[in-house]
Amino acid sequence: MKKFLALILALCMVFALAACGQAAAPAAAAPAEEAAAPAAEALVADDIEDSMTSADGKYEVAFVTDIGQLKDKSFNQSTYDGVKLYAAANGLSYKYYQPANGDQATDDDRYDAMKAAAEGGAKVVVCAGFLQDAALEKAAAEFTDVKFIFIDGWGTGLANIAGIAFKEQECGYFAGYAAVKDGYEKLGFMGGGGGTNPACCRYGYGFVQGANAAAAELGKTVDINYSWQYGSSFSASPELQTMASGWYNNGTEVIFACGGTMFTSIAAAASENDAKVIGVDVDQSYESPAVITSALKGISAATQWAIAKAYDGTWDEIGGVGTSLGAAEDATGLPVDTWSLTGYSVEEYQQQLADVVSGAIAIDDQVIEGDGITGVELSNVNLHYE
Amino acid sequence: MTFLIQKTLLSAVPLMIVALAGVFAERSGIINLALEGIMIFGAFIGVAFVRMMQVVPVFAEAARAGAWGTLQWLEILTMLVAGLMGAVFSLLLSFASVNLRADQTIGGTALNLLAPALVLFLIRVMANQNTLQMVTGDAASWFMIKKSTLGIDKNADIGFLGETLLNKVYLATYVCILIYIILSIILYKTKFGLRLRSCGENPQAADSLGINVHRMRYTGTTISGFLAGMGGFVYSLTTANCTANGDVAGFGFLALAVMIFGNWTPLNIAGASLLFGLFRSIAAAYSSIDINGDGVFALAEIGVSPHFYRMLPYLITLIVLSFTSKNSRAPKAEGIPYDKGMR
User: Fold this and answer.
1) Chain B residues with CB-CB distance to A70 below 8 A
2) C-alpha span between B225 and B65 (Å, rounded)
3) Which of A12, A181, B263, B337 qualifies as a cystine partner to A344, CB 3.0-4.6 A?
4) Which range among A16-30, A106-120, A154-168 shows the weakest confidence by mean pLDDT?
5) Contact A247/B288, CB-based, under 8 Å?
6) What is the domain extent for residue A378?
């Protein structure tokens, strides 16, 4: 019996090792392929390794993640895509740092990650997410010759921090407008950060305004369920899926999934119910056939743009202040290449985009935390807070 | 109503099958505290297996063509694989508690600590992140049986029973219920079942009648490991969108509570799981529950804080346990390593 058991346990370990081996093999093969064909074609972020090894053990461009996973197919991932693309195109070394303790990361954990980055030879540190504020100011004050790029953040007065924010209300507006124009009458919004994340708040507020504008044009009234529940850690959960499924079950036709990995739960609920979902930050139509459109913000492009400024001597333009990018800078919008809406055409969208850029359409840009949207009159929307 | 019944079943079935896993181990005389760990391991193995199979042409083609029958076979196969690996994992516990006569509580706790660590490590190696997901698509589009998969129009009326039992369901739920019934009958109505239970009550007496206590305890714990591993995958498939992240929301421990509450008997356990499943789905979807179909969402309108609803399942478990645990009767010899010399 003992021998048999020992055999089984040994087999178990072999299988476990085999599992590791399989996964590691393609990872090891990739750099070799890259070396064989050096940047012959346009670089695609997904083809660039997430972890690279530099010759001198120092990493020039560092990325400190927000809560949630690196590969969230949304915020963290697209910021890192920007880092990888810039670094790969310019032959720089790069590395990502995830603050310890995952979703419960403290300011100290974030500071430690930034410190590790700075001590690891970083000249530019990209920090994603407004939660990094306190840690960032501490690190920037200590490592004055390192340049920090604060994505989804603001200017803090320190010359080596550049705050880059987006006008999320604009792409939220486009998404809400497009959904109602396309014929949807019962909408949902599920936001991340528990109602305290400024970016998500702007998304939600813009979404409601856009839906209202389209409903007013069409002369009808639409319902919107509006919730911050189960989103505080930006992660997928069975509870979130059940809740979304409940909404769909009661007639909600499309939900704006506004928060990183939350998307997977909501998209799963959508395909359970043959319903639809709107993606966020990046074009998520590749993730699920249930996606009708996505509220885009050009994080990857903005990250590359900001890193370039750190290298070409124009850092002073963005260092020390906050820069807000919107439709005028081509940083917010909807994905035109994967357009699937039928009731609202690309031409109409582009006209509207131009109107937003020119100011003909005014979108209120307050940050309204949690429930209780005020400030604009929502004539054609019934909001249900949950 | 349909929605509530379905969501209740989705939560209750994994709980039920894992609680039965606990019964098999404890009836044979081994306290299986490692249910949580085995579930976590089973969920990981299941998701990893699904990932591997998704790129196999047969299944990839079936998913594209909507050949749902083939995908149901994949689901059953994955349940089997997750169960088998769960059984292998549980051998660690059997070995420690039967051969080495170690303290079973400590052995189980060790497995509970080992499983998430091991699983997170492997997920990181395989996918470089904290959650292992399907390669493409989601659980609902691959494995769920819906009206649209059956070729019925989305808005067609197929009656209350049809809506409840055939629309938006997983085959795994029914397979688990079937296995649950069969194993309950085996445990109570067969010679093998009687022998297994006798080892948990009075192993010395069983031994004196020629029953190999060690073998029986190995069998009980291995069946337990199989069920818990399978239950782990079923949990992740039906409620967590076929993802594994080293966590099954405490279902293994809840299953232990359900087992005690159900007094180690299958019928009571089924009732207890349904009760817990009901409150769990109320917690997550209270605002969408419309019991009599009149468009009034009573639970949302009475204005109780959502936090209260989220506490409910645990509150109920606590209350029910504090009232019923006095009457519960554990197998007499559970937790005591069998020693031939002690008569």
Assistant:
1) 128-129
2) 36
3) A181
4) A16-30
5) yes
6) 168-296+333-385
